[in-house]
C-alpha cells in the first residue's frame, strides 16, 4: 500500500509528531510504502493568491502545486495529523487544502453536480485538542469539525474517510495516558 502522511504542527516535540512516528513505524511493519509531507518543516506556502486562483480555474496549476498533486495521486491512503486551533485545523493545513485540492484535480462540476475525482483513496485523521471531551462533544464542536472536514472537504473530493480520531486534553494528560493514546493510533492504522 502507498500511504502519504501529512503533518501540520510546527513543534517537532509535540504529541502530533509522536503520533506521526507511531503511524510511520506501524505502517512500515505492515510493508506500506510511505511518503511524509511535513508542512511546517518544508515551509509550504499556504497563501492562496488571486492569480493562483485564476490559474487553477484555467487549469494552469503552478509547478509546486502540481508536485503536491502528484503525491496525492500516488497515494492509496492519506493520513492527516494536526492540532485543533480555535476549533479548526491550523491555517497552514487549510492553506494546503486550498492550494492543492483544486477544481479539475480533486473535484469537478458536471451537469450541475459535483464529482469527487479522488475516489478510491482512504483517509485517516488524527486530530489533537487541549480541550476535554466533556466540553467538546456537548457543545457540538467535534461534530461541526467532522462535518466540515469529513463531509465538506474529503467526501466532496471523493475520499473514503475511514476514521477521524480525536485525542482530548493532550497537554494535560500524563505519560501513561499518552501511551494509551498511541496504542489507539496503532489500532486505527491497522485498518489500512
Q: If you compute it from the alpha carbons, what radius of gyration comes out, rounded to the nearest whole angstrom?
A: 17 Å
Instruction: State the share of residues found in helices, binned by percent.
Output: 40-55%
Report the sheet with the most strands, covering strand number, pairing sense and barrel closure. 5 strands, parallel
> Strand percentage, roughly?
15-25%
GO cellular component, one term: cytosol
GO molecular function: NAD(P)H dehydrogenase (quinone) activity
Family: Belongs to the NAD(P)H dehydrogenase (quinone) family.
Protein name: Flavodoxin-like fold domain-containing protein
Topology (SSEs and partners):
Layout: E1 2-7, H1 15-29, E2 33-38, H2 50-57, H3 63-74, E3 77-83, H4 91-100, E4 107-110, E5 113-116, E6 122-128, H5 133-136, H6 141-154, E7 160-167, H7 175-189
Parallel strand pairs: 1-2, 1-3, 3-6, 6-7
Antiparallel strand pairs: 4-5
Helix pairs in contact: 1-7
Domain Flavodoxin-like fold: 1-184
InterPro entries: Flavodoxin_fold, Flavoprotein-like_sf, NAD(P)H_dehydrogenase_qn
Keywords: Oxidoreductase
